[in-house]
Amino acid sequence: MGTGIYLDNAAATRLDERVLEAMKPYFFEVYSIATSEFGYSLGIEAKEALEDSRIKIAEYLGAAEREIIFTSGSTESSNLALKGVVKAADKVETKHIIISSIEDFPVLHSAKELERNGVEVTYLPVDEFGLVDPQAVREAITERTVLVSIQHANQEIGTLQPVQEIGEICREKGVLFHMDATHSFTRVPIDVSELAVDLVSMSAHTIHGPKGVGALYVRKGTKIRKLQDGGFQEFNLRAGYENIPGAVGFAKAIELVDEAETERLTQIRDRLIDRIMTEVPDVTLNGHRTERLPTNANISFHYIEGESVTLHLDMYGISVSTGSACFSRSLEASHVITGIGGGHERAHGSIRMTLGRHNTIEEVDVFVERIKVIAAKLREISPLARREYD
């Protein structure tokens, strides 16, 4: 029997029961599509729920109500941000965008698709901690640049980027700035009334909300075109019936996150990192030690494969993720670990542990004791370890 310790909250979080309760009426009672004040009562009630949720998200972000566009999640949000801005930039003959080399796949693959269609893309390198140099952003901007997209926090190593400085450079240069906040939203303060950002991708699935719903913040006046045709929903930026239960759940999930919970998770994260770094030999912390998500720890265990560690932990009911190529559908090692100069061996041995509302200090202590034993056993049979120690 396993211990049931879930440490992959960056991939998906357990839905909070209070979120489910808030959503239920919009499955079974107010199940209509959203209609205007000229429609029938059930549709008007659905519309009010949708707009109330939009207002709550906007207020949390420091935005205006009409600047929040509901989507199916962060993947759609980032696709809409990158492709929608490029599509709207008609007057630029050869369009140019800038992203970092360690962006999450929605941004990275959107950029590659745009590149295949004639858009010039600059992939900025990062330093050993995964940080983008704002000066490199400044130097990369040209008169053809229509968008810079730099993530707020990295999905694998948790490094927080200097987005305010980057945003100010973009504003100075008259270039739009998109920020993927999938993993930082609600855990790291974001106030778009102060932050120099034009578009922000968000998702509910990382904050104990429902899967399949997210939002894109689009600052008023930003030139952007919708990608899917149909109706005129979401201020004519996203065709299709709105996911009203999802929107309600997203707003409720945001309401339930507080500073005390984030501080508790930060303390758990620090204990997790400190214990592994001091009690397990031959390990490397990936990402910045302090400028990182309060919920993220990513550590490479040298001389062993991350897939082996993951499978052994799973036998004890412990869930983590790895940057090993064997666990990637693309069969490529983590582009993030290699992007920070880690090399394939470090990428193959990387383990990402991400925390959520239901994790405890006690779970972390159990995990560390398990990983100490597993790492030692795997190194006993590892040809890489034997060669190193011999």
Fold and architecture overview:
- This protein is α/β, with parallel strands linked by helices and 390 residues long.
- Helices cover 42% and strands 14% of the residues.
- The protein has 15 helices and 13 strands.
- It has helices spanning 17-23, 25-28, 41-61, 74-88, 105-116, 134-140, 163-173, 233-236, 244-256, 259-279, 306-315, 335-339, 343-348, 361-381, 383-389, and strands at residues 5-6, 68-71, 96-100, 120-124, 145-149, 176-180, 199-203, 214-218, 283-285, 296-301, 318-319, 321-322, 350-354.
- The radius of gyration is 22 Å and the shape is globular.
- The mean pLDDT is 94.
Please render the helix and strand layout as text:
Elements: E1 5-6, H1 17-23, H2 25-28, H3 41-61, E2 68-71, H4 74-88, E3 96-100, H5 105-116, E4 120-124, H6 134-140, E5 145-149, H7 163-173, E6 176-180, E7 199-203, E8 214-218, H8 233-236, H9 244-256, H10 259-279, E9 283-285, E10 296-301, H11 306-315, E11 318-319, E12 321-322, H12 335-339, H13 343-348, E13 350-354, H14 361-381, H15 383-389
Parallel strand pairs: 1-11, 3-4, 3-5, 5-6, 6-7
Antiparallel strand pairs: 2-8, 7-8, 9-10, 10-13, 12-13
Helix pairs in contact: 1-9, 3-9, 4-5, 6-7, 10-14, 11-14
